[in-house]
Design goal:
globular
């Protein structure tokens, strides 16, 4: 069956960094645009970044541009999000999504001193 499993979240101090991973299975990962979406406490979903199926095109929301890097390894069916210079505004549950079809369960990122 289809699975998207995020990992790599946790508690980090302001200014720190994290790398989130999303392991995909059960579908043809290499044919999908992939997305990272987050939801901060008490707020709606916010699109963060997306990457084309072959990894050559990447896009970021203005709120994360320059601090987040999305990448993928199609040989490993894995999506990544490298996050630098974390602030409390980045505290959220981070989800990966495959096109409009599949979502993971999310991984919590908490930025706090």
């Amino acid at each position: 069956q289809v699975q998207l499993v995020e990992s790599g979240g946790g508690l980090v101090q302001p200014g720190g960094s994290l790398r989130l991973s999303c392991a995909a299975s059960g579908f043809t990962f290499s044919t999908y645009w992939m997305y990272w979406v987050r939801q901060a406490p008490g707020k709606g979903l916010e699109w963060v970044s997306r990457i084309s199926a072959d990894g050559t095109n990447t896009y970021y929301s203005e709120s994360v541009k320059g601090r987040f890097t999305i990448s993928r390894d199609n040989a490993k069916n894995t999506l990544y999000l490298q996050i630098y210079s974390l602030t409390s505004e980045d505290t959220a549950v981070y989800y990966c999504a495959a096109g409009n079809d599949y979502w993971g369960q999310g991984t919590q990122v908490t930025v706090s001193s």
